[in-house]
């Protein structure tokens, strides 16, 4: 059952996707068991929009821990946005809604409404990219045709599920744990540095979803692992001596 269908089945507990690649992620591996439990608690107990209302008494009770808000921020501060009485988890949205929030499905509409009510629209666009959530200006532009890609350089995009995406990095960062694992297995070449080149070679291409984009990029990454940027220079003993000998 998908995330969206699970939320419209009233009376049932919502089901959420989980990232099985987290066990290979360096950040996750650096956490103690207590903080791993806390993170799992956060992504299970936050709202459908990734909002977790501060409740450290409940957190400590459910996780059998004894952390303060200061301890919490020391570990998770870079992955959460503190909004006073709640924390917002941007990557939760990216993972649960990989196709973005530009849909009229009831669950998506509910998420957008909650984000609007909590003044998080700008933060979502800054964190996940302007293509992840497009708020249409109601009442304007009726009866007028608008060229696709207006406001951006024509043709400088890929298409994911009928949406024109001008920056593929937020989509790929959704699979960051998996791509980091691939990077470690193939010479530690920073995969993000290859995103612009991959993007340039796939302009105008259509992708079914984020997984399709990830698989295409991963193949591109692996195809280039033996390029000059991926392998160390291999020299014979004579060449090494020649380089070391002053001329």
Structure characterization notes:
This protein is mostly helical and 247 residues long. The protein has 2 domains: 3-128, no CATH class; 158-223, no CATH class. The protein is 45% helix and 6% strand. The protein is built from 13 helices and 6 strands. The protein has helices at residues 3-8, 26-30, 33-45, 56-63, 69-76, 90-96, 106-117, 121-128, 169-173, 176-185, 195-201, 210-223, 237-244, and strands at 51-53, 81-82, 86-88, 158-160, 163-165, 206-207. Strands 1-3-2 form a 3-stranded antiparallel β-sheet, with helices on one face. A 3-stranded mixed β-sheet has the order 5-4-6. It is globular. Residues 1-13, 137-152 and 231-236 have low confidence and may be disordered.
What does the secondary structure layout of this molecule look like, with pairings?
Layout: H1 3-8, H2 26-30, H3 33-45, E1 51-53, H4 56-63, H5 69-76, E2 81-82, E3 86-88, H6 90-96, H7 106-117, H8 121-128, E4 158-160, E5 163-165, H9 169-173, H10 176-185, H11 195-201, E6 206-207, H12 210-223, H13 237-244
Parallel strand pairs: 4-6
Antiparallel strand pairs: 1-3, 2-3, 4-5
């Amino acid at each position: 059952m998908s995330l969206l269908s699970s939320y419209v089945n009233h009376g049932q507990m919502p089901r959420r996707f989980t990232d099985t690649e987290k066990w290979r992620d360096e950040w996750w591996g650096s956490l103690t068991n207590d903080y791993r439990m806390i993170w799992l608690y956060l992504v299970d107990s936050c709202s459908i929009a990734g909002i977790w209302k501060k409740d450290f008494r409940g957190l400590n009770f459910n996780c059998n821990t004894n952390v303060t808000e200061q301890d919490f921020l020391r570990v998770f501060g870079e992955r959460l946005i503190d909004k006073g009485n709640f924390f917002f988890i941007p990557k939760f949205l990216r993972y649960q809604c990989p196709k973005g929030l530009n849909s009229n499905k009831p669950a998506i509409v509910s998420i957008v409404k909650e984000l609007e009510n909590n003044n998080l629209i700008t933060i979502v666009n800054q964190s996940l990219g302007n293509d992840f959530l497009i708020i249409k200006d109601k009442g304007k532009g009726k009866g007028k045709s608008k060229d696709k890609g207006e406001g951006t350089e024509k043709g400088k995009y890929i298409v994911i599920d009928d949406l024109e995406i001008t920056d593929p990095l937020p989509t790929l960062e959704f699979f960051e744990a998996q791509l980091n694992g691939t990077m470690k297995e193939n010479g530690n070449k920073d995969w993000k540095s290859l995103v612009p080149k991959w993007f340039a070679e796939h302009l105008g291409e259509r992708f079914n979803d984020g997984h399709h984009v990830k698989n295409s990029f991963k193949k591109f990454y692996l195809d280039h692992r033996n390029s000059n940027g991926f392998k160390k220079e291999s020299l014979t003993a004579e060449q090494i001596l020649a380089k070391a000998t002053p001329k």
